[in-house]
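Good day; I would like, with your permission, to put a structural problem before you. What I wish to show you is a protein chain and, alongside it, a tokenised description of its three-dimensional fold. Thank you for your consideration; the sequence and its tokens are set out here:
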Amino acid sequence: MPQPGPAHSWGGTLATASGLVIAGEDGGALALVGAAKAEGTAEADNGVVEIPADPGGALAYVFAEAVAPAGQITFRSPNESAVDHNIAIEGTGVDELGPVVKNGGVSEVSVDLKAGEYTFYCSVVGHRAAGMEGPLRVN
């Protein structure tokens, strides 16, 4: 195996003089670091839908989808992690954002919803694109 100088590359790997080794292609393994999969459905209870952020700090909510009746609904998203998250609702003329929180904070937003299809998501830059969103069905 060749010995690295100040910086030497072989086989898609770069080694620097400080000993730092940087892999060329990870086959997607780095994309899975901190990954979490949302599951289940959050349902309204007395006008409140609670959709917690992943407590480990992954870019995910605990629930994959939500259902609520038409009318005034409050969405709460507790966030126990040190990673910024919030809850936002959009669709059918609605685009409301809750505050960004972390370390035990709760992002909350109240909206008057008509029957239809909406989306809940995290508006922190890059989080929605990473999959931190889900469908909201209002009956």
In short: The chain has a mean pLDDT of 82. The first strand starts at residue 7 and ends at 10.
